Amino acid sequence: MRGLHIRKPFTRRSRNKNKWRAPLIVGTTSLLMAACVMPLPRTPVANALPGWQLTFDDEFEGSDHQPPDPARWLPDTGGSGWGNHELQYYTSADNAYLDGDGHLTLEARRSDSGRNCWYGPCQYTSAKLTTLNSGRTTFAQRYGRFEARIKAPSGKGLWGAFWMLGDNLPTDGYPASGEIDVLETLGDRLENVQQHAHAPRFDFGDEADIGSGGKIDDWHTYAIEWTPERIDWQIDGRTTQTLFKKDAGDGWIFDHPFYIVLNLAVGGDWPGSPDDETVFPAKMLVDYVRVYTPASP
């Protein structure tokens, strides 16, 4: 459906100092919840978290330039601008591949492919992978821990993301579906990441420091722990933001399954266009994606 091509309108990206935010809390949440899970064959993970049951994972094991597992990942393609006047064309295959060392690569390139984008001949290509597209769902879950280890690219105009949309998007549209941004990186802000949640009646979130001198082009683990009462954002196991249902009031719509999105965008209203110092090809590497639900007692 074309609704799947809507990508976060710029108007809600403004740095509005009056935007409502819930208080920040540091700590680990103990989750007691029911999950809505679409099971998928999985590779055993030796270092899965104690107290959690793995429901989805991809360790991206495979040969160099092998495509990502089509039983898990669906390409979302096109050069519509994705609601933000972005410059890339998301291809169906060329820009997403395994590197042979256990990583998924999303690669943004300068384009001479002859494809057309909203502004004319496409200047860039890149990749976007989802677990729901065109009437097919490979995975969606309500509540749990969603985690990925990611090394994002540096450079003006590069915008990487690990995020989630409600699986009712095809029928109810955006923003009714809701959105949870586990991670967004801007390539010219190396020491900070963006963590947000969006719903029809509120926008939540802010920039978070990686901490300990870390930068987005180093490996870091980004996660949320999501319960019926709250969402905690984490960087390398440290909780950086918390959204409470009680503070969101009737704006809380995060009680249905969400699916996963990975993408690397180029340009657009929020990050701005690449400059002369932005290096292409640019790569966002993903070591793994893992999703959990609390283990039965």
Give an overview in words.
It is a single chain. Strands 1, 3, 4, 5, 8, 12, 17, 18, 19 and 21 form a 10-stranded mixed beta sheet that branches. The termini are far apart. The radius of gyration is 18 Å and the shape is globular. The protein has helices at residues 169-172, 245-248; strands at 52-58, 74-75, 88-90, 96-98, 104-110, 116-117, 120-121, 124-126, 128-130, 132-133, 136-137, 144-151, 158-166, 179-186, 192-199, 202-209, 220-226, 230-235, 238-244, 258-266, 282-294. The protein is an all-beta fold and 297 residues long. Strand 18 and strand 19 form a beta hairpin. Helix content is 3%, strand content 40%. The chain is built from 2 helices and 21 strands. The protein has a single domain (2-41, 51-294), classed as Jelly Rolls, CATH 2.60.120.
What is the element layout, followed by pairings?
Elements: E1 52-58, E2 74-75, E3 88-90, E4 96-98, E5 104-110, E6 116-117, E7 120-121, E8 124-126, E9 128-130, E10 132-133, E11 136-137, E12 144-151, E13 158-166, H1 169-172, E14 179-186, E15 192-199, E16 202-209, E17 220-226, E18 230-235, E19 238-244, H2 245-248, E20 258-266, E21 282-294
Instruction: Return the domain count.
Output: 1
What's the pLDDT, averaged over the residues? Answer: 87
The rounded Rg comes to 18 Å
Beta strand % = 35-45%
Broad CATH class: Mainly Beta
Tell me the structural class: mainly beta
Number of alpha- plus pi-helical segments: 2
Q: Which fold name is given in CATH as the topology?
A: Jelly Rolls
Which blocks of ≥5 consecutive residues have pLDDT under 50?
1-43
Helical residues, percent: under 10%
If classified by CATH, what would the architecture be?
Sandwich
Order of helices and strands: EEEEEEEEEEEEEHEEEEEEHEE
Sheet of most strands: 10 strands, mixed
